[in-house]
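Re: the multi-chain job from yesterday

Posting the exact lines I submitted so nobody has to dig through the queue logs.
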Amino acid sequence: MEKIQSAIAKARADRAATRLHDDVPAVETPVPKPSYGPPVQHSTRVASRILTTYPDQAVAAALTVRWREFPIFEPVKAHMARNHVVTFTGAPDSVHFDVMRTRLLQLMRANGWRRVAITSPGPSCGKSTLALNLAFSFGRQPNLRTLLLELDLRRPSLARLLGLRKQHHFSRVLDGSEQLHDNAVRIGTNLAIATQSGAEPQSAEMLHSPAAGTTLDAIEASYDPAIMLCDLPPVFASDDAMAIMGHMDAALIVAGAEMTTIREIDRCEREVADQTNVIGVVLNKSRYQEKDFGYDYGG
Ligand SMILES: Nc1ncnc2c1ncn2[C@@H]1O[C@H](COP(=O)(O)OP(=O)(O)OP(=O)(O)O)[C@@H](O)[C@H]1O
Ligand SMILES: [Mg+2]
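And the result, structure tokens for all chains:
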């Protein structure tokens, strides 16, 4: 583990200074805005960097009503356990994700971030599993609302991992043709997950389109989540991850132990850092996980 961490640190040190992304330009091309009801006053992307205070009781009540519009879904415990989603039941392993959640939240609050991309260099490193584990861990925080969005439109998996059969198309929300609450479910009171049934053939175009950024802004403004976790595709598999990365506040990179090379992590980190803030590299599937939960969380 130490070897991996120092190799990542060395690769970082060898690089030129990373850039922060406050200067990423807002979407310029005007596109039709999907309607989600009036936005919460403080939460436009640029103007607001506050994560927890609600502007007033009326707005808070309107938000509660809006969140109730998501249909409730109750995942099956055994299905979640089979898919390594340990935080759903609060199994002992979930403590690792709770630690990650707390550190992530501190970092997000300190920087005024809300949108976190979860990506990886190559496929099958465990992004979607991590995204769900973090989502349920955040979902247990009673005073926080969490949204998890399926943004791997080419090879979506959140619906399958959740055991959700209802057909959802987050791609249609992204292009402004359908509403979020018709393509997402709520688990408990303060976690909502938007899913995608089947591959979206136009995924790259869709994620590149200005409508995608506008929709993410509209969702954030209307539902006012403290955190929006976004399950992205692998960086090297297609253009899709990088197409949407500029709309993220920060990114977590998942590496698969004995799957991903240091060179791949380094290249991936560099490419992602061109578009957003890299929070750190999570080493997943480590055989040493029991003794030393394998993640590097350095920024
Ligand atoms: N910590 C873990 N321990 C054991 N198996 C895991 C772990 N994390 C993920 N897996 C398994 O690895 C496989 C890939 O996981 P997952 O679908 O989360 O990866 P992914 O990075 O999202 O893949 P893709 O690139 O296809 O989107 C799944 O079978 C999952 O159950
Ligand atoms: Mg995945």
